[in-house]
Amino acid sequence: MTTSVLDPVAITGCGVVSPAGAGLAALRALLDGETKPNETPPAEDAEVLPPLAVRIVPDIRLADYVGRKGTRRLDRMIGFGLIATRLALDTAGGADDDALRARTGVALGTTTGSVRSVYELADSIFNPEVGYVPSRFPNSVMNSCAGQIAVWNAFQGVNSTLANGHASSVSALRYARNAIRFGHASRVFVGGVEELSPQVAWGWHKSGTLTQDAVLGEGCAMLVAEDPAQVGDRQVLAELLGAEVGYFDPRNRRVTPARGLAQTVTRLLERSGLTAGDVDLVSLGAAGQHGARTVEEYGLRLALGELPTSLRVSDALGDCYSASGAMQAAAVLARWSDGSHPAERHALVTSLGADGSVGCFLLRRPTA
Amino acid sequence: MSEPNSRRVVVTGLGVVSSIGIGVEPFTESIKAGRSGISPISSFDASGYAKRNAGEVKDFDPGAILERLDPEAWGRSGQFAASAARLAVRDAHIDPDLLRASNAGSAMGTASGEPRVMYGIAEQWSRSGGEEFGPGPVGTAPANRLAGAVNSELGLTGEAVTFGTACSASNYTLGYGYDLVRTGEADFFLAGGADSVSRYTHLGFSLIGIISEILRPFDSNRSGIVTAEGGVCIFLEPLEHAVARGARIYAEVLGYGVNCDAKHMTQPDVATITSCMQSAHTAAGVKAQEIDYICAHGTGTPASDAAEVAAARAVFGDDVPPISSIKSMLGHTMGAASGLGSVICCKALEEGFLPPTATLDESDPELGPGIDFVPGVAKPANLNIVENHGFAFGGNNAITIFGRVK
């Protein structure tokens, strides 16, 4: 296998919809302890959520971001995706460049698409009196959010939907990086989306995988990944040095998930031309799954020795599952915004799922 | 930012679980004979629907194929995925220990992941809310388990990622795997897809009015799709490695093109399909006139077939190569569809035949004259370069190009 160092990809924008509200500044304020996350679910969900701690995206009107026309049959998850994309586009610039839009792709992490929309379709079988609008059927398909992001923004580059549980966003970043490297797009809106519908919350509640103090979250974070050659004088928030993903089935005793994570991190560092000592900040992924924090910490100690400064965005937002890796990246960008923490240059972001999937990527702060 | 190819990538193993055959040889024989896998739906009560056919895999026994996975712990799509992967690895005659010790992973495409599992949970939700959800189904439902099933069955530690790019997803996985192997990011890779027939998939396509009893691509009387299921997996290996170990090489992956209509979620767009074909040719380093056959997306809906043929005419002018749709036999296997198309492209190159559009009675005159849609059964043909189409909801177009290795 190759060990050559790859060229970085520029991250020129970031849009976030989270329990902190809309925007990277809102996430920063939450991480700085200036605000509190929203815990109030939409009225129609409040009575059917399980007894679990939740962090919910506050009521943000999609129409305020994309206009009212044509939004009525979209589902809530698509709304998250469209708002995060619009915010990301606003920060990245180039919104008026039609030629660039035609070369812009999407790589979106989501493990099951909109579970709410799937259940809505299925419910029409058992409760036909409720009535179902056929034009909502596309919402139930896994790639509906990525497809709608393209439709609403005229992004004609590669359009991909990546499912990898907690590592979905890392897989999306890895895919985006590859797509840019081989010219399937020169810019990719890449991230992850998760909607904590009552159906999903009950699924987690009954999964038997959560700790007593687990907190579930939701939202969407989109990064704008670009070929550095086309960025020009637009700002670069960070550089994506690499993204690696592995799978270490816990039933396969040959390599434990912790050792697998360590191997994957070590490979990422090698491929990025760095050593363990270069990592200044770790943005951790493990949240409310039994044993996950121990595995992640042990794996990181194996790879890095001493743990550098750690950031766990799920403490503030709850576990955002498919969106978690992208949220962790957004947390790094929020932390570094306005020149804060200038001594931190390299941030490692890690993800791991209960099935043994692990992922990691490296962000580098651009030199001033 | 594009980089030169460093390694040539070939297909040396094919795994198929389909309604017309389990294993690549039975599958290929059925395709050549124009055999149909469409039958009355047996996996759910379809009596309430106007159209009651599907392409179900009737005689699938995962326990007879799988070596490591307990089928009970996985959904039907995961069973399809892992079984197809096991068959592909056996077909490749690659040493399983070498595979486990290498940097090898999988990408599996799908439209609905585990729709039967999801549907079972959704039914509970509709009847009694979440109180009766069980950990088994909840743990089995996530779509990423399709690629996870492949890696767990084969003991692979490379990435396991599921592509939810619906009906073109297998072509996405193949393109991605090709990139990983050609650059050395992966030593080997398994790419494919899986989907299951389910009541809600059938319902959804019924609601938008494109379900038919018979899938008749390019026919005057075509009226829509038949939902179908299956699993497919393609083993990708560097050419040099395959030659060194004396492997049978089906075909070389020459390149792929991907883009997005970005106009409408369900209506295909001729202009972007045209440019997807052109970018696939460019990526593969081939000229349009070198293409000997097109394995069509060919869903049998009036709009989709018309758009696909119009795009082919835009690219090939008056010299459109033979185009056929194996969905005429399989139905629409969704996430597995373009993977099964890739398999038949590889076999067509290897054996020298044009796969048929088995159900074609009368070519639609509106599609224009002068195109061989290969009606009925396969025809012998000497093929060197072929292309395989996959288009999807969301306007996710993906086209792969395969060449014969001489």
From TrEMBL, chain A:
<feature type="domain" description="Beta-ketoacyl synthase-like N-terminal">
    <location>
        <begin position="7"/>
        <end position="224"/>
    </location>
</feature>
<dbReference type="GO" id="GO:0006633">
    <property type="term" value="P:fatty acid biosynthetic process"/>
</dbReference>
<dbReference type="InterPro" id="IPR014030">
    <property type="entry name" value="Ketoacyl_synth_N"/>
</dbReference>
<protein>
    <recommendedName>
        <fullName>Beta-ketoacyl synthase-like N-terminal domain-containing protein</fullName>
    </recommendedName>
</protein>
<keyword id="KW-0808">Transferase</keyword>
<dbReference type="GO" id="GO:0004315">
    <property type="term" value="F:3-oxoacyl-[acyl-carrier-protein] synthase activity"/>
</dbReference>
<dbReference type="InterPro" id="IPR016039">
    <property type="entry name" value="Thiolase-like"/>
</dbReference>
<dbReference type="InterPro" id="IPR000794">
    <property type="entry name" value="Beta-ketoacyl_synthase"/>
</dbReference>
<dbReference type="Pfam" id="PF00109">
    <property type="entry name" value="ketoacyl-synt"/>
</dbReference>
UniProtKB/TrEMBL annotation, chain B:
<dbReference type="InterPro" id="IPR020841">
    <property type="entry name" value="PKS_Beta-ketoAc_synthase_dom"/>
</dbReference>
<dbReference type="InterPro" id="IPR016039">
    <property type="entry name" value="Thiolase-like"/>
</dbReference>
<protein>
    <recommendedName>
        <fullName>3-oxoacyl-[acyl-carrier-protein] synthase 1</fullName>
        <ecNumber>2.3.1.41</ecNumber>
    </recommendedName>
</protein>
<comment type="similarity">
    <text>Belongs to the thiolase-like superfamily. Beta-ketoacyl-ACP synthases family.</text>
</comment>
<comment type="subunit">
    <text>Homodimer.</text>
</comment>
<dbReference type="Pfam" id="PF02801">
    <property type="entry name" value="Ketoacyl-synt_C"/>
</dbReference>
<keyword id="KW-0012">Acyltransferase</keyword>
<keyword id="KW-0444">Lipid biosynthesis</keyword>
<dbReference type="Pfam" id="PF00109">
    <property type="entry name" value="ketoacyl-synt"/>
</dbReference>
<dbReference type="InterPro" id="IPR000794">
    <property type="entry name" value="Beta-ketoacyl_synthase"/>
</dbReference>
<dbReference type="GO" id="GO:0005829">
    <property type="term" value="C:cytosol"/>
</dbReference>
<keyword id="KW-0276">Fatty acid metabolism</keyword>
<keyword id="KW-0443">Lipid metabolism</keyword>
<dbReference type="GO" id="GO:0004315">
    <property type="term" value="F:3-oxoacyl-[acyl-carrier-protein] synthase activity"/>
</dbReference>
<keyword id="KW-0808">Transferase</keyword>
<dbReference type="InterPro" id="IPR018201">
    <property type="entry name" value="Ketoacyl_synth_AS"/>
</dbReference>
<dbReference type="InterPro" id="IPR014030">
    <property type="entry name" value="Ketoacyl_synth_N"/>
</dbReference>
<dbReference type="InterPro" id="IPR014031">
    <property type="entry name" value="Ketoacyl_synth_C"/>
</dbReference>
<dbReference type="GO" id="GO:0006633">
    <property type="term" value="P:fatty acid biosynthetic process"/>
</dbReference>
<feature type="domain" description="Ketosynthase family 3 (KS3)">
    <location>
        <begin position="6"/>
        <end position="404"/>
    </location>
</feature>
<keyword id="KW-0275">Fatty acid biosynthesis</keyword>
<keyword id="KW-0963">Cytoplasm</keyword>
